[in-house]
Amino acid sequence: MKLVVVTAGLTQPSSTRLLGDRLGEAVAQAVTQAVTGRAEAAEVETVELRDLAVDIANAFVTGFPNGRLRAAIETVTAADALIAVTPIFSGSYSGLFKSFFDVIDNTALTGKPVLIAATGGTARHSLALEHALRPLFAYLRAVVVPTAVYAASEDWGGGRDAFTDGLGERIERAAEELAALLLHRVPRRAEPEAVVPFEQQLAALRPGEPD
After folding, report:
1. In 10 A of CB 82, how many CB atoms?
2. What whole-number distance in Å separates Cα of residue 38 and Cα of residue 114?
C-alpha cells in the first residue's frame, strides 16, 4: 500500500511538514494494527511542494510539467491514499498548494481516499478546512475522510496524550478513518480462477442430445 503525504510548508523546518509526518506515521501505524497477521503494510512517501515551486510556476507558463514535476504528479496519482497538508493564509489554502493540484488532471484523484489537514497561527482559521479544502477535493472527486486535522500554534505544546493533547486525539481519529478507507480500497490478491478445458466449454454450448 502506498500512502503519499503532500505538504505545502514554505519554511524548513515547518509545522506543516511536522503535521504531515505525524499524520503519515499515525496512518501507517493504524494500517499495521488493522492487518496484524497479514502481509499488508503502508509505505509512506512525502512530496514537498516547496521544492517544486519553480517547476509548478513553469508548468503554468509552458502548459507542460517538467520531468521532476511529472514524477511528483505520478507519485500522487498512483498513491492508494493521500494526506494533503497546507498552511492557511488569509483564511484559505496557500497558493502553492492550490497551484499543484491545478496542474493535476481533475479526474486523476477520482475515488482516492484523502485526509485533509492544515496549520495556522490561530484556531480561528480552522474552518478553512471545511470551506476551502474539502470543496477542492470534492471537485477533484476524491473521497475525503470525515475528520479534518487543524493544528494552531498552541496545539504543539501538548503532551501527546488523550488528556492534554487534543491534536493527538484528532490525528489518531483521522488516521483510523483513512486507514479504514485505504484497506477497503486496495484490492486483495485474488485467488486464481480454475481453467475450464476448451472441450468442456464447447460441450456446454451444444444443444442437449435427444433421449
Report:
1. 24
2. 24
CATH topology for 2-205 is Rossmann fold (3.40.50)
The CA-based angle 172-145-98, given to 5 degrees, is 110
8 A C-beta contact, residue 149 and residue 115: yes
As a dihedral over the C-alpha atoms of residue 98, residue 69, residue 144, residue 180, rounded to 10 degrees, the angle is -160
Distance of alpha carbon 194 from alpha carbon 110, whole angstroms: 33
Q: What pTM was computed for the model?
A: 0.82
Domain locations in the chain as residue ranges: 2-205
Per-residue pLDDT of the chain (211 residues; tens, 9 = 90+): 899 999 999 988 899 999 999 999 999 999 988 876 555 678 999 999 999 999 999 999 998 999 999 999 999 999 999 999 999 998 899 999 999 999 999 999 999 999 999 999 888 889 999 999 999 999 999 999 999 999 998 888 655 555 446 899 999 999 999 999 988 865 444 444 455 565 665 566 565 555 4
Question: Grid coordinates representing 21?
Answer: 509526518
Q: Please write down the long-range contacts of 129-134, taking CB distance under 8 Å and 24 or more positions apart.
A: 132/91, 132/92, 132/93, 133/84, 133/86, 133/93
